[in-house]
Input
Amino acid sequence: MRVFLSWLLLAAAAMAADIHGVVEAESRPVPISGALVVLRGSGREWRAVTDAQGVFRFSDVDANGQYTLETTAEGFSPALRTDVRPASESGPVDVRLALADFRQSVVV
Output
């Protein structure tokens, strides 16, 4: 019984993976802290905010899942990545955000 439970725990751990990366400005590689990163897939949604180095991490995601990653930050255009896979398969998922296009208009 103990061997079976140990095997079951190892099998469950093998099925979990993580998705991580860095969010940077597109114009030059400067990390963006405070960006909201939303991961969707496998019927779930996870949210993370980038740290001072622009790093985000989602742990314990399904190792066989396919995900969508949406990233937003003030002053930048949103970015959407599809077909995102856990890091064990594809490595880090780095995101580059373009500066937002600000336009002002005056209505008279």
User: Anything to note?
Assistant: The first strand starts at residue 16 and ends at 25. The chain has one domain: 17-97. Residues 19 and 86 are 5 Å apart (CA to CA).
